Amino acid sequence: MEINCNNVQIEQVITNLLLNAEDALDHTKDKRIFIRAFFDNGYAIVEVRDNGKGISKAQQQKIFDPFFTTKKLGEGMGLGLSISLNIIKNHGGTIDLGSREGKGTAFRIKLPLASSMYISNRNLLFGPEPFFREI
Ligand SMILES: Nc1ncnc2c1ncn2[C@@H]1O[C@H](COP(=O)(O)OP(=O)(O)O)[C@@H](O)[C@H]1O
Ligand SMILES: [Mg+2]
């Protein structure tokens, strides 16, 4: 199964999710980041989950806004998620999250699978196995 995507852009999205997860683990003792990818119902799904500080309901409304950051000056521009949302929308996909303060956060990217007619001259990110592949 395949998706049409701009590899560089999707790599940027996943990298930002991983870096955000890492930042969220600053004060967590048993630091964990989980990543998985699988196919479901016409979509390729990538999930990045951490057991970090979590995001309050109020902040969850703002995290996709350009320049929204809770990081110190010089540590975050607040552009990662807003750019990511644009990239994923441009691919016809969605990005959503679940989070609990003090427990952790999970982000889920959904990208529509390509119809085989369109795959010819685009880059392929996913192969047949339901595991994360080198990108
Ligand atoms: N996994 C996460 N855990 C906790 N907070 C997060 C997580 N991912 C994003 N956030 C929150 O969303 C904000 C915006 O993220 P982002 O757009 O990537 O900008 P930046 O990383 O530069 O702050 C972060 O400052 C942080 O408050
Ligand atoms: Mg970021």
Structural class: alpha+beta
The global form is globular
Helix content: 10-25%
Q: Please give the alpha-carbon distance between the first and last residues.
A: 16 Å
CATH topology: Heat Shock Protein 90
CATH architecture heading: 2-Layer Sandwich
CATH superfamily: Histidine kinase-like ATPase, C-terminal domain
- How would you spell out the order of helices and strands? EHEEHHEEE
Per CATH, the class reads Alpha Beta
- Main sheet record: 4 strands, antiparallel
Q: Report the mean per-residue pLDDT as an integer.
A: 88
Work out the helix count.
3
Q: If you compute it from the alpha carbons, what radius of gyration comes out, rounded to the nearest whole angstrom?
A: 15 Å
How many domain regions?
Answer: 1
Uncertain stretches:
116-123, 126-135
